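SAMPLE LOG
Freezer: B-3
Tube label: C17
Construct: single chain, 385 aa
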Amino acid sequence: MNLHTIALNNLRRRKARLAFLVMGLLVGIATVVTLISLSEALTMEAEHKIDSFGANILITPVSDDLSLSYGGVNVAGVTVEPDPIRMEELERIRTIPNARNIAAVAPKIVGAVEIGGRRVVMMGVDPEIEFNLKRWWTIDGRPLANADELVAGSAVAEALGLNLGDEVKIAGQTFTLTGILQPTGSQDDRLLIATLPRVQSILGREGVVSLVEIAALCADCPIEDLVEQLSAALPATRVTALQQVVKSRMHALEQFRVFSLSIAAVVVFIGALIVFVTMMGSVNERTREIGIFRALGFRRTHVVHLIMTEAVTVSFIAGALGYLAGMAATWAALPFLAEEHPHLAFNPLLLGGALLLAVAVGSLASIYPALHASRMEPTEALRAL
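STRUCTURE (predicted):
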């Protein structure tokens, strides 16, 4: 019989104390696992929602003109920019190292057209990409379905007296108005929107675009790296990150992580106190047993080894059960907290971290009780009976 066997036999004989120790540490580990896994799941939920707010990178032609009216492009005249972006150059965007972080690439051409003697801004887009990217747009009617259709901003529809189903002639070409944007309070209210090839034809600018909006997927995207890589891929353009969107995203997620870790630290501290008090009580209850061990020739290091073996064994069991309990709690709570994108993934690092944390907390909380037990003199311990 060795020290490990003695420690395991002690745990088997005192099942009630074993259960209390496991429960004390299990609650703390389960709370940590729940908060961290919930934080990861809600971060993914936040990413999903925030990314649906639209683009966070803007690519425009290099220009010295600071008079801008839409997305960095001057649309006051026929000549929009001195060196427009060519469509074939956009294929380089999907070749950058961080291309996997790019959710959508939305090219646009913007220019001025004349309707009934009034000049308005017309924008050509890829309807499938653009109307998915601008999810805040609410349309009376429907989006573009073919090249002969037109969607108008609320302000321009009111100024021109346009209604759904009206035919609109622009540069000798006829469009049918299929949708009117509800007021957005932005420059989108003053736009006429049609398909990209049709507007390029009207403006006489086939094969080029005025600007490109890019939506990046993840909250911790290396936005500066993306900008640098895009600038290298498109050297004749200006790539700008909408830092306000990115920084707001990072700040919100960071606050949630700090809050979760703070709560987890408090719960783990309480778990450590429970282990400490329980182990001290166990040592005091086992004065006779420890005295006999010492009388039989056990050294102080043997007593410390015995107590610490028990603590590590109990902590490992509590860590494993706490991880399972935490994941179960997250699975139960996630549908109520993440309605649009609930996703719970197995994270081996979290499992390893839970076991390591449980063993570390249990061991640290048991050091003093183990040293206290090792300092007992055999004669004093047996005299106390």
